[in-house]
Amino acid sequence: xxxxxxxxxxxxxxxxxxxxxxxxxxxxxNIESSATSIPGDWTEYRTTFSRNEYNAFYQALDSLVxxxxxxxxxxxxxxxxxxxxxxxxxxxxxxxxxxYSVVIEVYQPINGSSELISINEIN
Length: 123
Description:
Elements: H1 2-35, H2 51-60, E1 67-79, E2 81-92, E3 100-109, E4 115-121
Antiparallel strand pairs: 1-2, 2-3, 3-4
């Protein structure tokens, strides 16, 4: 019995110190995980764009005519390349056409040009 009490009294401060490190490390992990994305998972939409995101958007929509797309938010996903979801305002080019919003999905492979995957209207 005395040996158990001695062992517990010796190990208790070590366990308390270990728990403090776990809490500190979990806070660091939470900060790092919010700053990075998990492959295949979509990030939250944001309203700032990088040059690569703009290039991928306009390269994928280069051949579309008759409608003007203006991106205002983007979400990204790391895959075998990059996937993007752009929220856009749409203005058809014919007179008095109402504008509306869409989500445009674009895929950019590691080596290659951007591809338009889908255009879905936001209701």
